[in-house]
Design a protein that fits this description.
With 150 residues, the protein is mostly helical. The protein has 7 helices and no strands.
Length: 150
């Protein structure tokens, strides 16, 4: 019997999610008027409000997913007694769970000033991630607002 190889490891998920977060932050920054989610104007403003909520909710959910996958990634190192490497990796990604929770509370309370500030901080943490403008990731944030509310 051959080995079963999981092609979707925690590291690949983390890479995919960090790239998706960078794309979502770019889209959130492209919103024409940052105060629109607060005002909730009629017409296209509603579409922009829904997209902004989806983007911010996706960022929160993706960061929480990354934080949940850290222990899975570190388990192999700990099994081989690479404790320093495992602890360093945990410290390197400790911000993800904290920022994800802060973003979640900011989105659920419609605190768009805090969402903008947190987005800038997250972008600063992920500044080394390169994603081209012609990416093939699509729009992974569609429907994230409903998932966050559940």
């Amino acid at each position: 019997m051959s080995r079963v190889i999981n092609p979707d490891s925690a590291g690949k998920d983390r890479t995919r999610l960090t790239k998706a977060i960078v794309i979502a932050i770019r889209e959130l920054a492209r919103q024409s008027d940052p105060s629109i989610p607060v005002r909730a104007q009629a017409g296209s403003g509603q579409d922009q409000v829904a997209e902004a909520r989806d983007l911010a909710a996706f960022i929160a959910l993706a960061l929480q997913t990354i934080a949940a996958g850290i222990d899975v990634s570190v388990a192999a190192w700990e099994k081989r007694d690479y404790w320093v490497k495992a602890d360093r990796f945990r410290m390197e990604w400790a911000w993800a769970g904290q920022m994800g929770e802060k973003m979640r509370t900011a989105v659920l309370s419609d605190d768009w000033g805090n969402v903008a500030m947190l987005s800038a901080q997250i972008a600063q943490k992920l500044q080394k991630i390169k994603v081209s403008e012609n990416h093939r990731m699509g729009s992974p944030w569609v429907g994230a607002w409903e998932k966050l509310n559940k």
